[in-house]
Amino acid sequence: MSTKHAHPGVPVVAGAIAGGIEMCSIWPMEMIKTNLQLGTMKSHYNGMLAGFRYHIATDGVLSLYRGLAPVLVGSLPKAGLRFGAFDYIKRLLADKDGKSSTMRNLAAGLSAGALEAVLVTTPTETIKTKLIDSNSGMIRGIQNIVRTQGIGGLYQGLSATVLKQASNTGLRFMWFTEYKARVPGLLERQGIAYSQLSEGQHALVSFVGGMTAGIFSTFGNNPFDVMKTKMQGLEGKRYANTWDCATTIFRRDGFKGFYSGVVPRLGRVIPGQGIIFMSYDTISRVVSKYFDDNEISVSIAVKSNA
C-alpha cells in the first residue's frame, strides 16, 4: 500500500485494530454465509435475508453473533500479522530503489496469507465453523474438539485454508496496492491534488478500493473457501484430503458447487474489505503521526541533554 511507515510496528497495530472493527461489523453475514455453505439450515432458509429473519425470530438479535468470541480474539493478531507480514515481505522483495511491482505485491500477499493461515487462521476458523455448526459455546466447543480429535482437530483443513487465505490475501493486496497507486493520477486528471485530500476523501478512496479488492478476490478464490468450510465442519472427517473434498464437491454438485454461498459471501466481503482497508489507512496515519511525534520528542530531549 502507498502509506509510508516510519516504524515497523505501525502496520501491525493498525492492522490488528482494523481487523477487530471489520469482524464486529460483518459477523452476522459471515455466520449466515457459513451456514449456507455447510447446508445445515437448508430446511429453514436459503438466502442471506431469509437467514437474518430466521435467526432473529427464533433466537433473537444476539444469536447473529454466535461464534464471534473466538474469532474476534483471533482476528486481532490475524489481521495484525497479515498487514505486518505483507508490509515486511513487500519491502524485502522491492528492487534496489525500494520500488515494488504487481507480481511482487502478489507474491508478498500470497506469502503473508500463507503465514497467517498456518499460525492463526486455521485453528480459529475451525473453532468458528464447528461452533456455528453445533450451536455450542466457545469453551465447550473447544473442549469437544480437543477431546474427540486431539490438538490436530484444530488444524483440520489446513491445506485448504492455506490455499484460501494465501490467494485471498495475495489478490486483495495486489488489487488494493495497484488501485492506490493509480488513484492519484486519476484525481489529478480530474483537477484534485491527491496530497491535498481531506481525511474524509482519504477514507472514501480506501473504502472503495477495499470493496473492489473484495469483489476481485471473492470470484478468484471462492472454490477454496467452500472446500475449507466443508473440511472444517463437523463432517469434515469424511474427506481424506483437500483433493478428495474437491472431487466430492464436483461429483455431487458440479462446477457450481464451488461457488456455493458466493452471493452472501460477497455481501459480507464487499463491505468488510471496504471497512478494513479504510480503517487500516486511517489508523496508519494516526499511529504513524504518534510514532513520528515521539521520535521528534526523543530527538529534542537527546539534543537538550547533549
From TrEMBL:
One protein family per Pfam: Mito_carr
Solcar repeat extents = 6-92, 100-182, 201-286
Q: Which domain of life is it from?
A: Eukaryota
**Keywords assigned by UniProt, alphabetized:** Membrane, Mitochondrion, Repeat, Transmembrane, Transmembrane helix, Transport
PROSITE patterns in the record, alphabetically?
A: SOLCAR
Compartments it resides in: Mitochondrion membrane
**Gene Ontology BP, a term:** mitochondrial citrate transmembrane transport
Instruction: Determine if Signal is one of this entry's keywords.
Output: no
Database matches in SUPFAM superfamilies: Mitochondrial carrier
**GO terms for cellular component:** mitochondrial membrane
**Which GO molecular function annotations are given, in alphabetical order?**
citrate secondary active transmembrane transporter activity
What topology does the record note for this protein and the membrane?
Multi-pass membrane protein
What the entry lists under Gene3D superfamilies is as follows: Mitochondrial carrier domain (1.50.40.10)
What the record says about family reads: Belongs to the mitochondrial carrier (TC 2.A.29) family.
Q: Under what name is this protein listed?
A: Mitochondrial carrier protein
